[in-house]
Request: fold
Amino acid sequence: MAHGMASPMENSWKIKEEYHIDEDLGFALPNPLEELPYPFDVWISIAKNLPTLIENDQLRAEVEKLKTLNIDDLQGHKLQRLAHLVLGYITMAYVWNKGDGDVRKVLPSNIAIPYCKLSEKLGLPPILVYADCVLANWKKKDPRGPMTYENMDILFSFPGGDCGKGFFLISLLVELAAASAIKEIPIIFNAVQHQDQDTLQKALVDITSCLHKALEVFHQIHDYVDPNEFFGILRIYLSGWKGNAQLSEGLLYEGVWDTPKKFAGGSAAQSSIFQCFDVLLGVQQSAGEKYAAEFLQEMRTYMPPAHQNFLHSLESAPSVREFVLSKDNAGLQAVYNDCVKAMVSLRSYHLQIVTKYIVIPAHQQSKKNQTAEEPSEKENKGTGGTEIMYFLKSVRSTTEHALLKEK
Ligand code: HEM
Reply:
């Protein structure tokens, strides 16, 4: 965990171990576990067979048969993260089943009780989050081989063939490419502290190059994710019960709360990596559209608490943007702007992806249904439940506003 990242200087800014950030993998969980001990292994058996159990109409009955297990016996962060991932998959499958509109509004107590207790322990909500299905849902085929798509796999799948593998692994690989830039953060703050403009300039160049690599990796999504499978199948299983007309009251976690609770679906908006560079560069999402700012802030509550704390610690550090602004250094301002532009490019590319994977299939579907000329509100929403294009364009435009006027 983040060993060797700290500068030897006294009072230097460090990435503390408690932030759960790996030197190579960033926010991803290193080498996630795949097996739970008895009696929890029964959850794994169900989660490993979700597509078949759903197809054969057996999934809900299998879940209803489960004993209520006491999660106090599950010790250790990695085991608990695996259990959260597995219960998240099972819960999504139980609620959405075949994805044909036959939804369940009550999660039975035999799964709701351990799931909510575990979620409380981990500081995560009781729904499948990005920290589960992307950050903790991977393995290398050859453990000594590289972290490449070809040498990797996901641990659990929803129906929809390899679409889930493509979506989760590409998200992870984008995250990993950008993660190399996290190492530069202590260097940057220490350079600001010591007024060392050359070191700062070099670190900003390195961050830009990592963000460019992340953009290159993003392109691979076209090779591995089919728009119709994503839109028509996977998106349904990632949907939450907040702002969702199918569960307008939310989901009742039987035996835990007396009233239904609303939680947003799994989305890469819950990734810490973009928010991390926004904060570092002084991109003030909080000063942008109120709705977008609130949504991004809310998404933080779906991140592991250690990562939320890390973002918070970045916010309390000295402002890199103010420092760059205060220096009459055209070279430094240019490399700062390159970094911000790299974030803008990532967001522009992401907008194209969302057009291909959500907006166009939504139009096609509503034409097929001939119910409306415009895609219905439900179809045009992301899994997190936002009015997506409006939201994403506003986030990009706030990023652009951070650009300094070039001299
Ligand atoms: C098929 C591919 C993808 C689709 C359809 C997609 C869709 C969306 C949607 C609809 C949102 C709006 C929030 C919501 O309603 O959930 C969103 C937000 C976001 N997505 Fe994606 N996404 C995709 C891939 C990725 C990948 C690979 C990443 C990077 C790891 C990513 C990072 C983000 C971020 C950071 C946000 C928050 C907005 C921002 O900070 O710009 N997305 N995405």
Summary: Strands lie at 106-107, 138-140, 152-154, 252-253. The chain has one domain: 26-401. The mean pLDDT is 93. The CA atoms of residues 95 and 104 lie 5 Å apart.
